[in-house]
Amino acid sequence: MRAKKLVACALSAAMMLGLASMTGCGSAKKDYDLYIYNTKSEIADSIQDLCKDYETETGVKVKVYTCGTQETMETLRSEMNSKNYPTLYAINQAQFTEWNEGGFVLPSTSVNNEELKSIYDSIPESMQLADESGASCGIPYNVEGYGLIADTQMICDVFGLDNADAFVADYRSANYEEFTGMIKAIGDYINGKGGEKVTLSGNAYTTAKDKTATTENMNGVFAIAGAEKWTYANHYTNYALNAVFPNYNATAAATKEDVDKLEEPLVKMVQELDMLSSYTAGPSGKVERGSEYINSTVTGYDQAVQTFAEGKAMFIKQGNWVYGTIAGVDADKASRLTMLPMKVNLEQSDISAEGVTVDKMNSSIPEFVSQYYVINKKDSEEEQKAAEDFLVWLYTSDTGKDYITNKFAFVPFNADESEKLENPLSNSLVYYMSNDLVMGNDFDAFPESWGLNTIGATIQEQLFTNPDQWDENTIRTGVEDALTKWKDSIKE
Q1: Burial 260-274 (b: 16+ CB within 10 A, else e)
Q2: How far apart are CA 404 and CA 414, in angstroms?
Q3: At 40, is the secondary structure helix, strand, or coil?
Q4: What was the pLDDT predicted at 470?
Q5: What is the DSSP-derived secondary structure letter of residue 418?
Q6: What's the pLDDT at 308?
Q7: CA dihedral sign of residues 229, 310, 408, 339
Q8: Residue 232: Cβ within 10 Å count
Q9: Which residues pair with residue 340 across a beta bridge?
Q10: What is the radius of gyration, based on Cα positions, of the chain?
Q11: pLDDT averaged per 10 residues, the chain (length 492)
Q12: What share of the chain is helix, strand, coil (3-state, %, to 5)?
């Protein structure tokens, strides 16, 4: 299937280039007012419908082209070299430098539409696609985020509650010590020892003495994808990054002195992962660390999600994107999901990022933007205006907002808590955004493959595979070696 998509994508690009070349040296003839280049294949059909509705409402004819494969940037480069290049196109944070240095990015400071300027200004700083001057340069397609996902009915059954709301509220503001006490108590409950008291934000909860139909299959506290380095090398390391760097750009521009500041936060996050992975659920029982722990049939991504969906784990650290998979296993469970913040094993002295506190980190989740709409600075003022008007309509009109939330099933960056989405995990994201409890997704600014092939490999090969040889000295040595490789890649 993927090969067919690549071929189709390449053929489409070739056809467009061919059509452009047949027009000769003059301007290519256009039968549209605005050209949008989309890279989200899952909305390929619905964005076509959106543009038809836009034409009906405004009379503006939109051409939209979707290339949702791994070759999206190669195809975009071809499109930008054609006679009729897109005025509105999609890129991610890592691709921004190429297009900005090439002069293809219109910053918000050059936008004429005041409504659109206000939209740019309303994007949370941690989600902005910003240039060196700090100007916002893109409008988020969609917001994604990750944290500890839990079934609220399971929370009620483990702690003998009629409603999980108070527990969720207390957990959100709880500290790391309370978090570890809760994990131990849940682990004991799984092993048949209920009746233990837990304190969250100073309020007491007691584990139930008996299991229920919802909790009888539990064999671990966490479903962890030990076979998938990205789920911990990137996501867990990201918490340490947020303790040092204020945003993506700061991480990308890290000096050797900045990287040195990561040592203590990173050591403590690996120590935390050491604790969490001692309570791992599996498809047929608790998973002990060793060769089985990194076996894809036991702790692969799909299997970890399945383990959680089947009620064998209390939590899974994942993102709002797992909703559909869980719904496919148990629709009722999926409707009861909530996302909770991961607690961080940090002290205030470990944090050097300005304005960041331990309490704020303990109450926040990382949220990020996978793609941005960017206006082509090289296009004509007329077509730039068409792109500006389209973006305003998309994010402010009833029709546009309906497409974003219902047809695309996206989480808009400007959603508030009055807006209820079908995916309860997406509603959790809106809660954290609305209450300014959001961390950046700075790991995207790592040196290429550093997370997976350096710190990720260290965690997988030592902590997960050889736990008997993993102690505090080993943790620190592994982190120091990993950070040395990062510093070696920095040219000063």
Answers
A1: ebbbbbbbbbbbbbb
A2: 11
A3: coil
A4: 80
A5: T
A6: 98
A7: negative
A8: 25
A9: 148
A10: 24
A11: 37 40 45 94 93 97 85 89 93 93 97 96 89 94 96 98 98 98 98 97 97 98 96 94 92 95 96 96 97 95 96 97 94 97 97 96 95 96 97 96 92 88 94 93 88 94 88 92 96 78
A12: 55, 15, 35
Q: Which amino acid is at 291?
A: S
Contact 486, 458 (CB under 8 A): no
CA dist 74 and 474 (Å) reads 42
Residue type, 358: V
Type of residue numbered 349: S
Cα-to-chain-centroid distance, residue 478: 26
Angle between helix 381-396 and helix 44-58 axes, rounded to 10 deg: 100
Please give the C-alpha separations between residue 239 and each of 348, 366, 465, in angstroms, as whole numbers. Answer: 14, 8, 23
Four-point Cα dihedral 234, 239, 245, 250, nearest 10: 20
Edge-to-edge strand list for the sheet holding 62-66: 62-66, 34-38, 88-91, 372-375, 139-140
* Strand (E) or helix (H) holding 54: helix 44-58
Tokens representing 225?
A: 């994808």
The pLDDT tens digits for 139-167 are 999 999 999 999 999 999 999 999 999 99
